[in-house]
User: Fold these one by one.
Assistant:
Number 1:
Amino acid sequence: MFEKEGTAVKLPDTLLKFIEEWKDKPGNLIMILHQIQEEYGYIPREVAIELSRLIDTPLAKIYGVVTFYHFFKQKKPGKYMISVCMGTACYLKGGEDIILEFERLLGLPVNGITEDGLFSLQAVRCIGCCGLAPVITVNKEVFGKLTKDMLPGIIAKFKGN
Amino acid sequence: MALKNYVLVCGGTGCESSKADEIFQNIKKEIEAHKLQDDVQVIKTGCFGFCEQGPIVKILPEESFYVQVVPEDAKEIVAEHIVKGREVKRLLYVGKDDKRKTDFNKHDIDFYQKQYRIVLRNCGVINPENIDEYIAREGYAALDKVLTSMKPEEVIEEIKKSGLRGRGGAGFPTWMKWDFTKKAEGDVKYIVCNADEGDPGAYMDRSTLEGDPHSVLEAMTIAGFTVGANQGFIYIRAEYPLAIHRLEIAIAQAKEYGLLGKNILGTGFDFDIELRLGAGAFVCGEETALLASIEGKRGMPKPRPPFPAVKGLWEKPTVINNVETYANIAVIILKGGDWFASIGTEKSKGTKVFALTGKVVNSGLIEVPMGITLREIVFDIGGGIKGGKKFKAAQSGGPSGGVITADYLDTPIDYENLAKLGSIMGSGGLIVMDEDDCMVDVAKFYLDFTVDESCGKCAPCRVGGKQLYGLLDKITKGKGEMKDIDNMREISLAMQKASLCQLGGTAPNPVISTLKYFEDEYLEHINEGKCRAGKCKDLMKFEIITDKCVGCTVCARKCPVNAITGEKQKPHVIDQKTCIKCGVCFEACKFKAISRG
Ligand SMILES: Cc1cc2nc3c(=O)[nH]c(=O)nc-3n(C[C@H](O)[C@H](O)[C@H](O)COP(=O)(O)O)c2cc1C
Ligand code: SF4
Ligand code: SF4
Ligand code: SF4
Ligand code: FES
Ligand code: FES
């Protein structure tokens, strides 16, 4: 989307409106970053630069916050983000094997992205469905009570879309 | 006109992930197809707690409890149950005695038998997206009582009588926090709700907010009136979209009804609540870090004192309580502190919600009176260990807690007893482990978590945590030495004493606790290079026992890396260099011809 560093960006109106609403509220930075990530799937550098100008906050401060919180991503994720739960319940029920199997099936390390940009893989903490452990989410869809042999089917389902 | 039936469909995250919404839509469609929409109400509720058996559909007034429902069942449920009045037997929950089980409020189902619902009183009962249903169950009656007939001192007195202690982990008396904040100087004060739920493997707060968001809003407003605050913030994990969505709806509805905002219930009291999203940092569950995060900064803890009650959000006096703590307040106001104090043990009153997970048969969300034993939780409510295996330990308090072993299954669970055993109550994660779980590996799992989550501000936690993890890693790889055990104890002590916040201060707990009760397992790893649970891969070796192998080829076909070779009907062999120790063959062999050692 943003090929070169330094290209000026035009933010979508909804985002500009959100920033305008929050501009003068104390503690706005994290909420605005959430909105940016909602829009782009990550925090593009160009947008961070633009934000720095819009809310008159040093870029260093913005990146101080972005890098502190695991939730904010600096790299564009795949179209489908596979998040494997590695909370305690899922870990005990074989979450690690699920990760290893995804790594094998997709030929990816954790935090990697497939060449076609379709899938990325990450480990996350408890998704809150521990009763269904082990659990993964693909974007916002939850899959529970997983076994390794179910994984190819899940990948195929999203590849087909 | 009274309705003929109510159909309650679970809309908690667990069931939603197994198509609960489609079930809900299908049932509604079927009801309309039979033109019964005026006689039957279909409601989507919060979590019933019995997530293991989800998706759950319950029909009133018959109290039929349908489990593991799929969208295609909607037709039969409506045609048979609603139209013809005949229960769909194949979907009914059946207990251990093979009898049809019904209402959980009547404790008919084993899973609910020993439960006592205060916090979860509305979960699985009302539609959380409709304020009228909350009000119909005495919702906002406590707020009305407080605003129209109580003085702030009286509210504090009632909570003091109740003996309510913080459910976020530390168990600090709630009335004291409110009292300190009330007495603190300042014209601007804040009420904060900690919904950051960081313990990996726990989802009590999430389910409470998803199933009954108004209970928290009402309590925060009561807190605001009591201490003299007009603004509240709920700090909630961004990973909980459904809870956020339901909170947003609840706040909007409460405002519309004049229960939030300016001049609440015409009493002149103003109170507003806003949401702030967390961003995936465990340390932000710690109160001073949480406040820094609401201020939009990096979530670094600060030394206390000053406590938030004196100098909190933007340096103003601030009450910060956990979701579950708040969810108790309205009931205490309505039923009285004495009533609440009659439940529980001498120093731990009321109930506790636990996310019961791991190797139990019935995993789910439970609420039990303080003082219940672990045996009752694991064996009566949880239905025992899956697959007939042996109970080894339960971990409470997540990464800050420790294990409770089989010897202590009959200890009444409360703050004091858990601390004596070297664990903590924590926020409510309760993870059951069996003989297949390795205690060294569990300790390493938690240390991996805390090292990853350490904010790095102070050295004991930043450096000590890494060292501890390194030693545990070494032991699980079969490279441990005896001196590592002493080393671990020393580092743990230093972390406990010198860390700036309780993340580092409690991080060694899982190590200390497993060392205390399972030192023999550590020694086995070190001295014999053996992991009895078969979890530590570097210590494992899979071999085919030639005498037993009949050459059925199953293992060879299932091995993901083709490490097994052999002719049909001849003994097979595993190439140790290729084997990745996944254990697939071990489980696949029907002739028990593969050994794991
Ligand atoms: C590392 C760390 C993580 C914590 N995580 C949480 C949490 O997820 N939820 C919570 O309510 N309290 C958490 N706490 C406890 C809070 O600091 C604080 O004690 C609590 O919010 C107070 O509310 P209560 O008195 O109602 O329990 C955590 C504490 C520490 C040290
Ligand atoms: S103990 Fe750990 S999390 Fe707490 S302030 Fe120190 S480094 Fe940060
Ligand atoms: S343990 Fe796994 S990798 Fe090794 S031989 Fe068995 S199936 Fe193959
Ligand atoms: S599955 Fe068992 S019996 Fe069959 S070939 Fe493998 S080791 Fe031999
Ligand atoms: S531990 Fe995986 S969903 Fe809770
Ligand atoms: S989510 Fe449905 S019972 Fe828990």
Number 2:
Amino acid sequence: MRQRKFVRNIKLGMENLLLHKLRSFLTMLGVVFGVGSVVAMLSVGEGASKDALEQIQKLGSNNIIVTSMKPADEEVSSNTRSFMSVYGLTYEDHQRITETFHTLRQTAPAKLIRKEARLGEKFLELRVVGTTAAWFDLIQRPVIAGRVLLPSDEKDQLPVAVLTEFGARRLLAGENTIGQSLRIGGDYFEIIGIIKSETSEAANIQIPDQEIDVYIPLTIARTYYGDTTMRITSGSFQRERVELHQIILQVDGMEHVEPTALAIEEMFKRFHKKKDYRISVPLALLRQAEATKRTFNIVLGSIACISLLVGGIGIMNIMLASVTERTREIGIRRAIGAKRKQIIAQFLVETMVLSTIGGIVGVGLGVLIPILITHFSGMPTVITPGSILLPLCISVGIGIIFGLYPAVRAAKVDPIIALRHE
Amino acid sequence: MSDSTKLSAGPDIIRLEKAQKVYHMGTQEVKALAGMSISFQRGSFWAIMGPSGSGKSTAMNILGCLDRLTSGRYVLEDQEVSALDDDALSELRLKYLGFIFQSFNLIPQLTVQRNIELPLYYLGLDTLESAERSKELAHKVGLEGRLHHRPQELSGGQMQRVAIARALANNPQIILADEPTGNLDTATGKQILNLLLELNEQGTTIIMVTHETDIAAYARQRLLMRDGVIERIEGEGTGQ
Ligand SMILES: Nc1ncnc2c1ncn2[C@@H]1O[C@H](COP(=O)(O)OP(=O)(O)OP(=O)(O)O)[C@@H](O)[C@H]1O
Ligand SMILES: [Mg+2]
């Protein structure tokens, strides 16, 4: 019964608004654009940050990544013709870490060497990753064919290789290639598996694996290629000795990630004279990215809210004019027996109908804009239920807030004066 | 001036005692009603007359529960109106009173039917009930063919009929009419008066303000006002 009355009030409100179609439409526009811009901005913001968050999550939020880095001053002194720079992580570092920290569940040390590979007639420059079976636990990628490295490969020093999907395609390898031999540099490896490759598109985040990787046991990499690499750049030799290029550590719990990273940093400071390593903590990046996302949303949200506010003020303005214009009607209704609160309800329903319809149309517009943005610019956008519901609620709220004052003004109209009003 | 004036027998539906309404215009005080006492019986038909500014409209606003007395008592159907709050006054208007104005006071955006239905909406009737009732009322005032017209498409007499139908919608005990024929020609005015007379015969109390003696002649009692007080009363039961 009550509900029927409510529906009837809304119907009456709509009827009244339809008496002034153009005016109601123009009044609504403010809310339409306000809500539309809130929805659009939130979805653009959400899209940008979701991209970053996904990249970080690929790194593993329980992981710590320690990477060898050529120290800055080394660069300067290596001007001499054939200088050997020695830096980076060592096997000893790796051993020390695994022995010291009981919060570590697994570690995956890796040697990274660029080599040319050949399969049949095809050549491809690959990044050879000499690592252990643990790598595939820490950087989990779907296996497309065959298998990944096993601890036994390492122990038995088997010359086996795991390709990425990308590498496999370039070398024209497929499922039938499993078991064939791949030449890397001057050595032959048996292809045992193909895994899905990941590309890191967000430029600022470096994920540990690349699409041009080929994975071989660390022990093999060490015996085949040694620790010294030689590069010829602009006529001068550059010899480098790096034992391990990267160690990925998996911590046993999220709460241990940051303390462990700090302790490792302390350890490295003690054992490395130069800063030839970098410790990155995906979890910290994740937190940072989430914080950035929050600020981003707040800034965008406030800008959009200002436009909603403007829409609300527009509604209030028109409703105040409408109250003046309808003074006589209000007087008549009051004389007939309408209570003040019924007059308030009448005007409030009208503003709320305006702002709610405006809100719904605005959501339509706000959903359309990001779709167009993504379609034409390729920029990622994400529409979440929250980014639709929030502006919709705000627009209903705006109807109440900005409708209340005109409605109260309407209810205060003195019927005697109103009836004399011409 | 004559104090409490009791006329023909029958219970009072309205009683004013020493009713005063004072307006303040800057430093000046205007006594629109200056201590007026009178009773109206159930089922009576009154015409209030008097020169311009004598307080007729002011009295009607008080009787219509649209305004409050500055001092004195107003009793409507045994209720002390002066003691009621705004919501209760609205309730009284809704339940007991029907208004007819000189300038009709219809809502121009609404159709005849919607105008008539207005009190029914506030009484809480549902759409079907009120549609039925508004048709009945339109028939009663002879406007059954005009339900879906807007007021501006009607003649003055027709508009006043709509106003009467609206005033009747809530089955009021009392109809208050402030110069109901003021904007109508004599012939139309008489038609409206006949309608009011008919209602009075059915038992509705009618209080009507008018300037015209021949219109006032329809009423069974006449109240003459001057400067906010009763100057004279004539008609049935007064011996005049
Ligand atoms: N709102 C008001 N503020 C101040 N004075 C008022 C107000 N309403 C009425 N008055 C004064 O009260 C007196 C009575 O006014 P009222 O309208 O009751 O006269 P009336 O008898 O209806 O006159 P008319 O025949 O011209 O309609 C007048 O002197 C008028 O100026
Ligand atoms: Mg008057």
